[in-house]
């Protein structure tokens, strides 16, 4: 497992690179490596933008299937309405609103736990084809 702090914008590139490298080591092809890197970039940017800082854990173990598991944890304001935040085009910062829903589409599984004023934990997984 790799754990990386998100404290500045440059950390987003580091996280993207680490996730893509681990995906390659696990055996993902270039297309899935790119999907994983894109989803990770979006989610890391959300942590930086909305919470200011947080951490990411990248793991090669996502049982029961073989793949990659990436967890983003922050202590920001939380997501007020998760269902709304997963809607294409929804944004609280005048962005395009593609981050969360786009990341969800690129990965095989997404789980969000959030508490107002206490932070958010987003876990995504991508599995190797059987």
What does this structure look like?
It is built from four helices and five strands, in the order E-H-H-E-E-H-H-E-E. 39% of the residues lie in helices and 31% in strands. It has a single domain, classed as Heat Shock Protein 90, CATH 3.30.565. The protein has a five-stranded antiparallel β-sheet, covered by helices on one side. With 130 residues, the chain is α+β, with helices and mostly antiparallel strands. This is ATP-binding protein. Pfam families: HATPase_c_2 (PF13581).
Rg result: 14 Å
Report the CATH superfamily.
Answer: Histidine kinase-like ATPase, C-terminal domain
Distance, first to last CA? 23 Å
Number of strands: 5
Averaging pLDDT over every residue, what do you get? 90
> Based on helices, strands and strand pairing, what is the structural class?
alpha+beta
Order of helices and strands: EHHEEHHEE
Sheet-strand content, in percent, reads: 25-35%
Measured as a percent range, the helix fraction is: 25-40%
Total tally of structural domains: 1
- Provide the low-confidence segments as ranges: none
Oligomer: single chain
Largest beta sheet, briefly? Answer: 5 strands, antiparallel
Work out the helix count: 4
Identify the CATH class.
Alpha Beta
- Examine the coordinates and then state which fold CATH places here, giving the name of the CATH topology: Heat Shock Protein 90
The dominant shape is: globular
CATH-derived architecture: 2-Layer Sandwich
> Strands of the biggest beta sheet: in what spatial order?
1-2-3-5-4
């Amino acid at each position: 497992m790799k754990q990386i702090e998100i404290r500045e914008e440059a950390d987003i590139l580091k996280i993207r690179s680490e996730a893509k490298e681990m995906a390659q080591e696990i055996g993902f092809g270039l297309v899935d490596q790119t999907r994983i890197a894109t989803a990770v970039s979006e989610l890391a940017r959300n942590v930086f933008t909305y919470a200011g800082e947080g951490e990411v854990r990248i793991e090669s173990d996502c049982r029961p299937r073989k793949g990659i598991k990436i967890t983003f944890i922050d202590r920001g304001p939380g997501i007020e309405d998760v269902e709304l935040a997963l809607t294409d085009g929804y944004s609280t910062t005048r962005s395009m609103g593609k981050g969360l829903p786009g990341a969800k589409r690129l990965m095989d599984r997404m789980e969000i736990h959030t508490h107002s004023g206490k932070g958010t934990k987003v876990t995504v997984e991508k599995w190797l084809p059987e």
